[in-house]
Design brief:
383 residues, alpha/beta, Rossmann fold, 2 domains, disordered N terminus, disordered C terminus, GTP-binding protein Rhes, methylation, cell membrane, membrane, Small_GTPase
């Protein structure tokens, strides 16, 4: 299944599940005081919708668990009274509530899904988070403050520039593409706010596929920080792959603010080349004047194994709704001689959120990261 299809399904499931949870919370108050067929029907519908969507119920709050327990207790009490009345009217002995032949109530099923669904969630976690989708890449952007990282990303995502400076804590962007019949997903993590949190930065590095390091030509300290970050990236990836040999990590380095007068430059190009060698792609850029940025985006694509059409000037920019409609039309016409035009297009997903740290850890450790627990645990690779 393509990353975009998984994305569509996850969004739909989240909306349906949220609606179902609201129904349960609304009806639980009525369950506490009165018996109503409408209330039971609402709970049943909500239960079926929750079960069908596979909601990650381990994320429920304590208040939500309390609501479920209250609703279940009240419904059990009502069903027990109803069985007693039915048995009395038919002249039959009352069946025990523990009878295995009795059907489980809707809220019994819901509670079982909540309380005993951990095994299922673990299996889903292995399938969904153990490995990345084939056409999904994460670009991690690192560098000192005030060097122009956010401005470069704005050029990549929206092709505009903002003169005003605002400190970036952490930004996460997602862009979806349809190129030559294939879907691609690029996640961009601007990890600027992680300078004071080494473990968090380490996790961002371990989950990154492509790295964009930015320093300013008029700030030598920013250049020294990029050198240290590059060494940290190499050491983290070597530890992850358990090797002592230097790895070829896809990295692009931007010497930004080349538009400044040469007398303000504090770092020479020859010095940068000596520091990073031939293992990195180096570009002298200007986010303000959009100098060499197209080459930067092309370098990111080439080193990350992505089509060159992911560059901002190489595809049509559409809204997420238009993107989904175009993708659906192309899938419907796939294999037909009269297929629609397959011009590359891309859409910025507006509701993207960074995956949780637990998800990133599972991604780093892989699907077999928790096996062989009897052996001594290795040192945590994030510290």
């Amino acid at each position: 299944m393509s990353p975009v299809m998984e994305l569509d399904q996850s969004v739909t499931a989240a909306l349906v599940s949220q609606n179902a949870l609201q129904v349960i919370q609304h009806t639980s108050c009525e369950l506490a005081g009165a018996s109503s067929p409408g209330v039971l029907l609402a709970c049943k519908n909500a239960t079926q919708r929750l079960g069908a969507t596979g909601l990650k119920l381990s994320t429920f709050s304590k208040a939500g668990m309390g609501v479920l327990k209250l609703a279940t207790t009240q419904l059990k009490h009502q069903e027990k009274k109803a069985r007693v009345v039915r048995a009395s009217s038919m002249g039959k002995p009352h069946l025990s509530s523990d009878n295995s032949q009795c059907k489980k109530s809707p809220l019994d099923q819901l509670t079982a899904l909540v309380m005993h669904g951990h095994a299922r969630l673990q299996q889903l976690g292995k399938d969904q988070y153990g490995t990345k989708p084939q056409n999904c890449r994460r670009i991690v952007v690192l560098g000192a403050p005030r060097v122009g990282k956010t401005s470069i990303l704005r050029r990549f995502l929206r092709e505009d520039f903002e003169e005003r400076y605002e400190p970036t804590c952490e930004d996460f962007h997602r862009k979806l593409y349809h190129i030559r019949g294939e879907t691609y997903q690029i996640d961009i993590l601007d990890a600027s706010g992680e300078r004071s949190f080494p473990a968090k930065r380490r996790l961002s590095i371990l989950t990154g596929d492509i790295f964009l390091l930015v320093f300013s030509l008029d700030d030598r300290s920013s250049f020294e920080e990029v050198r240290a970050l590059h060494e940290e990236i190499l050491s983290a990836k070597m530890a992850l792959h358990r090797t002592k040999h230097k790895l070829c990590v896809p990295t692009v380095i931007c010497a930004n603010k080349v538009d400044l007068p040469s007398e303000q430059h504090a770092v020479l190009r020859t010095e940068v080349l000596r520091a990073f060698g031939n293992g990195c792609a180096l570009f002298e850029t200007s986010a303000k004047d959009s100098v060499n940025l197209e080459q930067v985006f092309e370098g990111l694509a080439r080193r990350g194994g992505l089509p060159l059409e992911t560059g901002p000037s190489q595809h049509h920019k559409v809204s997420i709704k238009s993107y989904q409609a175009l993708r659906a039309a192309r899938q419907a016409d796939k294999g037909c001689k009269g297929a629609v035009c397959d011009a590359p297009c891309g859409a910025l997903y507006p509701l993207a959120r960074r995956p949780s740290f637990g998800t990133d850890l599972r991604l780093v450790l892989g699907p077999d990261g928790n096996r062989k627990q009897s052996k001594a645990l290795d040192k945590c690779q994030i510290q």
